[in-house]
Design a protein that fits this description.
Layout (H helix, E strand, L loop, with lengths): L8 H15 L9 H8 L3 H7 L3 H24 L5 H16 L4 H8 L5 H11 L8 H14 L9 H20 L9 H16 L1
Helix pairs in contact: 1-2, 1-4, 4-5, 4-7, 4-8, 5-9, 8-9, 9-10
């Protein structure tokens, strides 16, 4: 179930509850179904009408929220042609949605560790259908725009370009999540520095 499909209100309540619990720095391994349903304001038995277990609830919730965020970004990017404007859209959306609750880095971690939830999440990402929008789709769209606008050299290996873009976005997420904006470098300055460094290696 993804953000692009109409979901039962009880399911979205479960998904929002998972996001809130993760944002509160609760160890995801310690989260119980009762914690999720209590936060969602529904009965525990209701959750099992839609999901088999805790891992399925949490992995579905994470995938739902990632898809929701990425779909918003993609919609905004598709209305633009300029590579720099697209980067700005991504940064702004990260400010507003992704790192607002500090969940972005946690989601990335869950995509890379070896917990049961992470394994389910990676499998579902691998088996995803065309309705799900993920960070890789955003980067792919950005690369096409950069090459069409001759901002990115076509001779560069695609894997290298993907890693360079992803690394800048992760740095910005870490900067914002760790409240680094309170120091001497503003968000605007950080964006400019990251974009400038990206352009140096892309051209």
């Amino acid at each position: 179930m993804t953000a692009g499909k109409k979901l039962p209100s009880k399911v979205t309540a479960l998904y929002d509850a998972v996001e809130e619990l993760i944002a509160e720095d609760i160890d995801i391994k310690e989260i119980k179904v009762s914690d999720i349903t209590c936060r969602a304001g529904i009965g525990k038995g209701t959750a099992y009408e839609y999901f088999k277990n805790k891992e399925e609830i949490i992995s579905s919730a994470i995938l739902y929220h990632i898809d929701s965020i990425c779909s918003r970004i993609m919609e905004k990017m598709n209305a633009l042609d300029d590579f720099a404007q697209m980067i700005e859209v991504i940064f702004c959306t990260m400010d507003e949605k992704i790192v607002k609750r500090g969940c972005f880095i946690k989601y990335i971690h869950l995509l890379t560790d070896n917990s049961p939830i992470s394994k389910i999440l990676r499998r579902r990402v691998k088996e995803r259908d065309g309705d799900i929008c993920l960070p890789g789709d955003i980067i792919e769209r950005l690369i096409r725009a950069g090459m069409d606008g001759e901002v990115i050299k076509k001779s560069l290996p695609k894997a290298y370009i993907e890693m360079e873009i992803a690394s800048r976005l992760l740095v910005y997420a870490a900067y914002y999540t760790l409240n680094m904006e309170e120091r001497e470098c503003s968000r605007e300055q950080m964006r400019s520095l990251l974009f400038g460094s990206l352009m140096k290696v892309m051209q």
